[in-house]
Amino acid sequence: MGLLDGKVALITGAGGGLGEAYAKLFAREGASVVVNDLGGPRDGSGADKSMAQQVVDAIKAEGGKAVANGADISTMEGGQSVFDDAIRHFGRADILVNNAGILRDQTFHKASEADWDKVIKVHLKGTFCCTMPVFRWMRENGGGVIVNTSSTSGLIGNFGQTNYGAAKGGIWGLSNVLAIEGRKYNIRIWTLAPGALTRMTADLPRYKENPGAALGPDGIAPAVLYMVSDLSGDQTGKVLGVSGPRGVREMRMMEMEGWKPPHTGWNAQDIVAHAKEIFFSEEQIKMGARRF
């Protein structure tokens, strides 16, 4: 008996890296998998639809069930295509993992409009495009689980990734709203913030400087399996961070109790006077009240 017996999973960006690891693990656990990947370089230029097929062939060689999809998920037609393949081949859409992404890193003063638009389109709009048909189906068919991929670059920040960080922060916000709207339909929403050594991240400074501390894709996949399986119960609306340096942990926005000013008659200087009630101290941050 597998944890995902009888389930149908749709995974974007599954032709390599994290998505490939998810697809293979899900298939071993009994899921039928739609493996989506446009293929091509990590900056989103070009395409190589054979990448998805190679993962499908590997899954089938192990006795699993899978079908390849090479659609561009940053379009509504592409997102619909991934869903349509799930229904056409397997009749259901129980799990969606929005994993596809690209990188076009630049410091902000060097950034171009084209790089900004492309990264936002693939990550944030792509998550929207793939989620819409699946969410609607789940709403009418008893629910399901959606995992949206964010990043500490969006939740905390990272040098040189304004476009990527903005997209990943937007995905977190999208997930928060979907969790509220999907709850009564038994649609569970997770946000994942993975830190893994893949072809997307291999030349990033933090991995080049300390590659031994990084997890590979197979080190992230068990957490995603937990999210989409019955092991996670009815949990929804949560962010799970998974990385080598910090392990597996829930991440939350933290806020102070705050100072309540009068409706009128207060000024900017009052914020200074009540700073201890408004701002986290360094000691509180060290004790666990991290910025996120």
From TrEMBL:
GO terms for molecular function: oxidoreductase activity. Pfam families: adh_short. InterPro entries: KR_dom (IPR057326), NAD(P)-bd_dom_sf (IPR036291), Peroxisomal_Beta-Oxidation (IPR051687), Sc_DH/Rdtase_CS (IPR020904), SDR_fam (IPR002347). Residues 7-184 form the Ketoreductase domain. Keywords: Oxidoreductase. The keyword Oxidoreductase applies. Belongs to the short-chain dehydrogenases/reductases (SDR) family. This is Short-chain dehydrogenase. It comes from Bradyrhizobium manausense.
